[in-house]
Amino acid sequence: MIELQQLTKRYGDKLAVDAISATIRPGVVTGFLGPNGAGKSTTMRMIIGLDRLTSGAALVNGRPYVEAPVPLAEIGALLDAKAVDGGRSARNHLLALGATVGIGPRRVDEVLASVGLTEVAHKSAGSFSLGMGQRLGIAAALLADPAVLILDEPVNGLDLDGIQWIRALLTELAQQGRTVLLSSHLMSEMQLVADHLLIIGQGRILADISMDDFIEHSTSGGVVVASPDAGALAPLLAADGVTLTSRQAGRFEVRGLTADTIGDIAAGHGLRLHELAPVAASLESAYLELTRDSVEYAAA
Ligand SMILES: Nc1ncnc2c1ncn2[C@@H]1O[C@H](COP(=O)(O)OP(=O)(O)OP(=O)(O)O)[C@@H](O)[C@H]1O
């Protein structure tokens, strides 16, 4: 379990993380989302003691990570996959890491196999592709069998096979009762793997909610309407809080009204409907709706 208590980080004038409090629970995958510069990496770095916190606390299994007797066994972290000594082979990199906590070749080879790097175990890590580097970073995170995993953009650079592999791995790690905190900007991927969401914007928590509740309560889903009488129907639907968008003549998407209401209005005026289809909200649409006002860096 990870507990953030009024966790704060200031860089000069910039309040990067602004008194965040949250509990990241075991047994589920928690997705950590937020626009660029929201403070995700800074929060993760503070949890694992790479950044000094300005105030508040970040507790891992009840105490600050830096006080853990065997840090590697407390949290497995993948923050920057390039942070390996490129001159060493993948196996030697893991052996050196394991040696600090009494882990030997057997466990190293086991972990190399589990991430699919056995065949290249003796190649220098510096020659690895982005995806292979990610796999090695994940191997390092898993090495000491930690109960807490923190992974910053773990699918970065992975091919489809790698993405599917990591999806299954994260689900399995959570099912084993571990705490899994995962950041990614890939919403479709996050929707498939995360059970819970912690969303931040400009250093503050915007939502701490289960994936199902977040999508279910989002009003970002719409209703697609196709009608030969669209010109007459559209003005009848106009009201406060209702938006209509149309990219094609005779077809538009309505937000803010249910399909039932639209159908009733059309029927009440004798207008024909050729299609009336609710479109479920996705994590992407719900997320965009929530973070619209807290995007710091937006293209003009
Ligand atoms: N070492 C630093 N010195 C000064 N400012 C920093 C430093 N590291 C981060 N920041 C600032 O703190 C804020 C939060 O940055 P952070 O990298 O944590 O965001 P993020 O949510 O991880 O973003 P991204 O999705 O782009 O990786 C940003 O405004 C960033 O510019």
Short account of what is shown:
This protein has 300 residues and is α/β, with parallel strands linked by helices. It is built from eleven helices and 14 strands.
Description:
With 300 residues, this protein is an alpha/beta fold. It has 2 domains: 2-216, Rossmann fold, CATH 3.40.50; 222-279, Alpha-Beta Plaits, CATH 3.30.70. Helix content is 34%, strand content 27%. The chain contains 11 helices and 14 strands. The strands form 3 sheets. It has a 6-stranded mixed beta sheet with strand order 6-7-8-3-9-10, with helices on both faces. It has a 4-stranded antiparallel beta sheet with strand order 2-1-4-5, covered by helices on one side. Strands 12-13-11-14 form a 4-stranded antiparallel beta sheet, with helices on one face. β9 (196-201) and β10 form a beta hairpin. α3 crosses α4 (105-114) and α4 packs across α5. The longest helix is centred in the middle third of the chain and has 16 residues, at 160-175. The relative contact order is 0.14. Bound molecules: adenosine-5'-triphosphate (ATP).
